[in-house]
Design goal:
Shape: globular
Strand content: 5-15%
Strand order of the largest sheet: 1-2-3-4-5-6-7
Radius of gyration: 18 Å
Length: about 280
């Protein structure tokens, strides 16, 4: 409810990163719910104040880098009376554009996909991309391939949150592979929500074998009782990934991040140097 609350949460997020040896993290944040929907009396400047303070303190104390994806709450864009309300998207877009100097690198679309397709949001995503933000909508989790097609063809996604339901459409898989559109896969979350009932049913290894650019992510760690290290453990324990395979997936995440080119080059160099040492000592 105050900038200090947000700073506290962000700082402890940075502490969590350090504990897991995470050097860089892009966090999805939904400013609209705090400023417009829940009526807390907060302004976007209050949010920026807290985010900036927490991020700076975490960087100073732990050496970690955080950036933001501001996402539209799709459920608030389709009121119960029907139709599409552009206000949440336009408001979130304004916040995201104002936030480019505060670490915002991506523009997202989150929430329950059923009866909330990507196509109506094209007006906001077109502007976000024109202004240099990554298009990173969620699609293909609680809805099927049609949602992913909408994210690809209408929102011109640079990355897709989830995207795993693309496994149901071979043509779509070919498009994702050929265009190298990365998927942000959240394995434990998918199983908890019964997108797939068991790890053995999850398509992550198949997507990877096909040549789709995949990354592994933690979605909402407290909600799903997981973290990023646990998710890499799932790759090893359930799908048989060895050290080299885990390293390749981790490197994918650096490559497809929204980090500025100079920072991305630095992070990749540090990762490769760390990996070389780790492999020598294995």
């Amino acid at each position: 409810r105050t900038p200090e609350d947000f700073a506290y949460i962000v700082y402890h997020c940075g502490q969590d990163m350090a504990a897991q040896n995470i050097r860089y993290r892009e966090l999805t944040f939904t400013p609209f719910t705090h400023t417009d929907y829940q009526h807390k009396g907060l302004t976007i400047d209050d949010l920026f104040e807290g985010l900036d303070a927490g991020r700076a303190a975490a960087h100073a104390d732990f050496g970690v880098e955080m950036r933001w994806v501001f996402d539209i709450p799709r459920n608030l864009s389709f009121p119960r009376h029907g139709g599409y309300d552009p206000y949440p998207a336009e408001r979130t877009l304004a916040y995201a554009l104002a936030g480019r100097d505060h670490g915002v690198v991506g523009f997202g679309l989150g929430g329950f996909e059923v009866n909330a397709p990507p196509e109506p949001f094209a007006h906001a995503f077109d502007r976000a991309r024109q202004e240099g933000l990554l298009s990173v909508p969620h699609a293909g989790e609680t809805a099927g391939p049609a949602s992913v097609w909408g994210a690809v063809e209408t929102l011109h996604a640079d990355r897709i949150g989830h995207g795993v339901r693309a496994i149901e459409d071979p043509t779509l898989l070919t498009v994702l592979r050929d265009r190298q559109i990365p998927l942000e896969v959240n394995i434990t979350s998918n199983v908890c929500l019964h997108i797939f009932d068991h790890f053995a049913m999850h398509p992550f290894p198949h997507l990877d074998r096909m040549g789709v650019k995949v990354t592994v992510n933690s979605d909402d760690p407290p909600l799903f009782n997981t973290n990023l290290c646990t998710e890499y453990g799932v790759l090893a324990a359930e799908f048989g990934y060895d050290r080299a395979g885990l390293a390749r997936i981790a490197r994918n995440a650096f490559e497809v991040s929204g980090a500025a080119p100079s920072l991305k080059t630095q992070l990749l160099a540090e990762f490769d140097a760390w990996l070389a040492t780790a492999m020598e000592n294995a």
